[in-house]
Amino acid sequence: MNEFEDLGFCKLDMGRNERTGHPEVVFGMGKTVDQVDTIFSRLVEVHGRALVTRATPEMAERVNATYPEAEYDEVSRLIYLGKPTRNLLGKVAVLTAGTSDIPVAEEAARTAEWMGCEVDRIYDVGVAGIERLLSQKERIREASVVIAVAGMEGALVSVVGGLVRRPVIAVPTSVGYGANLQGITTLLAMMTSCAAGVTVVNIDNGFGAGFQAAMILQLVSEGI
Predict the structure, then answer these.
(1) For 129-150, how does the pLDDT look when each residue is reduced to its tens digit (9 = 90+)?
(2) Which of 3, 31, 112, 148 ranks highest by number of CB atoms within 10 Å?
(3) What residue stretches are annotated with the PurE domain (predicted)?
(4) Residue-wise burial string across 133-157, b where 16 or more C-beta atoms lie within 10 A, e elsewhere
């Protein structure tokens, strides 16, 4: 198979599944409905599964016309079809500081599930009511990778990072009032966390966190 396929408006990376273990994922924002439909169909034809992030209901409606079994989640804005080629060892815990962070968390959780991870959702455990978080301490520690999603000042991540002996992937969200600067304040706070073992993805990038968590568990599953 050629490494890529020229569709005119894009060069689809057909070799990515063999190189990384997962097909190319489609970023829906900025693409037309026709473009998403064409890319999605070709990925399913070749790999038997596909995932679109930042998708619109119109994109989902078009995809469903050809693939009625494809699912669209309005919260995470994901369109997805197909099962993972294998179930990965371990478990991913996805935490949110607040309910407003759930859309980003669901993008992370559903991405990880599509890639073969078992996911445990632990939502609304922000530090403003820290007993909520501490009551879930043992459950969080059972995870192999922790994704912590928070807006505002992002303090959840530093607390979680000091509670577990596993990798913590921090996701800053754009949730917050003016000085939050649409997530920039949260991003900088997470990047300067005093807790070791914390890595940070981009603002509102639930997909990136879910993908990274799955890649960690893929490494574990391959025994390397």
Answers:
(1) 999 999 999 999 999 999 999 9
(2) 148
(3) 90-222
(4) beebeeebeebbbbbbbbbbbbbbb
